[in-house]
UniProtKB/TrEMBL annotation:
InterPro entries hit by this protein: PyrdxlP-dep_Trfase, PyrdxlP-dep_Trfase_major, SelA-like, SelA_trans, SelA_trans_N_dom
Protein name: L-seryl-tRNA(Sec) selenium transferase
Organism of provenance: Afipia carboxidovorans (strain ATCC 49405 / DSM 1227 / KCTC 32145 / OM5) (Oligotropha carboxidovorans)
Catalyzed reactions: L-seryl-tRNA(Sec) + selenophosphate + H(+) = L-selenocysteinyl-tRNA(Sec) + phosphate
Residue numbers of N6-(pyridoxal phosphate)lysine PTMs: K294
Assigned GO CC terms: cytoplasm
């Protein structure tokens, strides 16, 4: 045995470690039970290492230090921020839209204080929570009325269940989509209690397909934005306007599930025009559903706007109560929607739009600025270079659209086992104090800088980068 190594019996007891000033300080911060558990971990690890014949620093101070490190790591919130350098602006797995500062402030206030959530301040009597955002939604979409639920999946479920439970819902075969995270249109329809009536074919659906499917059992016609894919080539679909005319001739409502649902013309920001909610309302949809945390750039929510009589029916459905939104999100939604009243400053204030519209020259300049710091942090094992790359909007928004972007590519310097080196590199970035999420592409680990706004924090964070256990 190593002369400096203690024997198993010489490993300090939990009580001995607990008496050190470092442990006592930890008790103040983390509470006694957590500290005792941490010291147990540390002493057990020391014992194990010793039994395995390893050299162990097992002084009370060293063990208190180990316990402290364990506590620090354990105390990091699970919901801590990451750097989204994937190049996908609305990344569902990274929480989609980052909300505007105004929304953060409004949500914070709503958490901290009582608010008139379901209380009519003018009348001094009970009110409706939707009234916090109803008139804003109507103003921004041109709809007669509006309601809010937990997310767009809930919006579709509620609309189908309210208008077509026990009835038929007509959908084009080209629109029977699956959105990531197990939202499949046919399954939602089944859960809503509606009978799916498919019309047309995958690539072509005609007006007469809808017309012949309408019968007295029809509850509604559903039009779905094919968010995450595009049918190209020999295709035909029926315009919303034409479907609305058909539906109304038979006194059947048209529900248009827009998915993303932007409130502004994206073409003015150099992106492809996407049908806006107002346009969908104007072309005759009786109800339009869309998400809060996609192109709209707010918190998770689902909106249903449209005819007053239909919205009133939605609100009377007991399901609405189960799908409703809490005061924190309602406050954030209201603040987000208010930003849309000042279109000139929207791109500056709404992070989603700011990031989508960020000029590529600006991103490239950031890449040039950050290259030296990144190169130093990864060391000589990787070659770092500024590259042109492409970002995407994400979350099924403008799926066919790639936006020119720039980033930093890191390639293993040695030719051998580059796959393993890339995995180790990605692991290293992911286990930083603030995890950095990039993407592996063409044998390189790529950091797309479109969504990086706090460069100083990014550089500070790099100081603790470890690749494959080495500094
Ligand atoms: C994203 C999407 C949904 C689901 O919306 P969530 O807000 O994620 O629940 C439904 N329909 C379409 C067309 C979508 O793009």
């Amino acid at each position: 045995m190593d002369a400096g190594n203690p024997t198993l019996s010489r490993i300090p007891s939990v009580d001995e470690v607990l008496k050190t000033p470092a442990a006592q300080e930890a008790v103040v911060r983390f509470g006694r039970p957590r500290v005792v558990e941490a010291i147990r971990h540390a002493t057990a690890a020391a014992r194990e290492a010793l039994a395995a014949g390893k050299t162990v620093a097992a002084s009370v101070e060293a063990l208190a230090g180990d316990a402290r490190a364990w506590l620090e790591a354990d105390a990091r919130p699970n919901a801590r921020p990451v750097f989204n350098l994937t190049g996908t602006v609305l990344h569902t797995n990274l929480g989609r839209a980052i909300v505007a500062e105004a929304a953060v402030e409004a949500a914070t206030l709503a958490m901290r204080e009582a608010i008139a959530l379901e209380f009519d301040l003018a009348q001094g009597k009970r009110g409706e929570r939707d009234n916090l955002v109803r008139s804003l939604l109507c103003e921004l979409t041109g709809a007669e009325d509006a309601t809010v639920v937990n997310n767009n999946a809930a919006a579709v479920l509620l609309a189908l269940n309210t208008l077509a439970k026990g009835k038929e819902a007509i959908v084009s075969r080209g629109e029977l989509i699956e959105i990531g995270g197990a939202f499949r249109m046919p399954e939602i329809m089944a859960r809503a209690g509606t009978k799916l009536v498919e019309v047309g074919t995958t690539n072509r659906t005609h007006e007469k397909d809808y017309a012949t499917a309408i019968n007295p059992k029809t509850g509604l016609i559903l039009k779905v934005h094919t968010s995450n894919y595009r049918i190209e080539g020999f295709t035909k679909s029926v315009s919303g306007k034409a479907i609305a005319a058909l539906a109304h001739a038979s006194d059947v409502p048209l529900l248009n599930d827009l998915g993303s649902g932007t409130l502004v013309d994206l073409a003015q920001y150099g992106l492809t025009h996407e049908q806006t909610v107002s346009e969908a309302v104007a072309e005759g949809a009786d109800l339009v559903t869309f998400s809060g945390d996609k192109l709209l750039g707010g918190p998770q929510a689902g909106f249903i706007v449209g005819r007053k009589d239909l919205v009133a029916r939605l609100n009377r459905n007991p399901m609405k109560r189960a799908l409703r939104v809490d005061k924190i999100r309602l406050a954030a939604i209201e603040a987000t929607l208010r930003l849309y009243r000042d279109p000139d400053r929207l791109a500056e204030r709404l992070p989603t739009l700011r990031m989508m519209a960020r000029p590529v020259a600006d991103i490239e300049a950031a890449a040039q600025r950050l290259l030296p710091a990144v190169a130093t942090a990864v060391g000589s094992g990787f070659a770092a270079s500024v590259i042109a790359c492409t970002s995407q909007i994400g979350s099924g928004s403008l799926p066919a659209e790639v936006i020119q972007s720039a980033g930093i590519a890191l390639r293993p310097a040695g030719a051998r086992s580059s796959g393993r080196a890339l995995t180790a590199l990605a692991d290293g970035f992911r286990t930083l104090e603030r995890p950095v999420i990039g993407r592996v592409e063409n044998d390189a680990f790529v950091l797309d800088l479109r969504c990086l706004e706090d460069e100083a924090a990014f550089v500070r964070n790099l100081a603790t980068l470890r690749i494959g256990g080495r500094r």
